[in-house]
Sequence to fold (244 residues):
Amino acid sequence: MFNGTHFCKGFFFFRQKLPELLGTVVTRRRDVGIDKVKLINRREVDIMTFNQVVRLLAVFSIIGGFFRALMCPLALVWGMNSPQELTAGVLGTIFMGLGIFGLYLSHQKEFGKLGFTAFILYAIGSFILMGMVFSTLVFATYDPKVLQMDMPPLPIMVAGPFMMVTVMLSMILLGIAALKSKVFSKVPAILLILGPILNFVPIVTDYSVLAWGIPFMWFGIEVLKKVRGGNRTAATVETINTKL
Fold:
C-alpha cells in the first residue's frame, strides 16, 4: 500500500541531495570548459612559438642575404678569394642556410613538392658550400699557395661539382616555386632563377652574388611582414572553438 510517511521521507531526502547533484553536474561542466580553455591557450602558445621561430629564421635570411651580396663589392675592392670576401661568404652561407628554413616553413603548404625539393637541395648544398668557403678562407689566411695550385685539394675537388649542382638547381627550383605559388614577389623570384645563369656570363659573373643575396633579403622581409603572431593565432583559436 501507499505509505505517506515513506513518500515524505523520500521527497525530503531527494530535496536534500538535489543541490549536491546539481553542483556535481555544474562542476563537471566547468571542468570541461576549463579543459577547453587550457587546450586553446596551449594552441595559442604553440602558434606564437612557431611564429617567433619563423621570424627569427627570417631575420637570419636577411642577414645572410646581406653578407652574400656584400661579397660583390668586397671582391671588387680586395680581389676574389680575399679574406674579406671569404669572411662575408662564410657568414652569408651560415645565415642563409638557417634562413631557408624560415622561408620554407612560412609557406610550406603553398610551396608543395617543388618547394620542398628546392628546400632540401639548398639545405644540403649550402652546408657543403659553407665548409668549402671556410676551408678556402683558412687556406687564404694561412697557406695562400694552396689556392694557386692547378689542382685543388681532393675534398674540394670532389665536393665542388656536387655543391654547385645542388645549390644552383635549388635556386632555380625555389624561384619557380615562389612564382608558381605566388607567396613571394616576382622580382626576387626571377632574380633567384637568373642567379645561376649570370654566374656563367663573363661580363656580369662578378655581380651574380647580388642576384643570390638580394632575393634572400627580400624574401626575409616579406616573411616578417606576413607572419604576424596575433592574426594567425586569432584565426587558429577561432578554428579550435568551432571544432570544440
About this structure: The chain has a mean pLDDT of 78. The helical segments are 4-78, 83-106, 108-142, 154-181, 186-198, 210-226, 229-243.
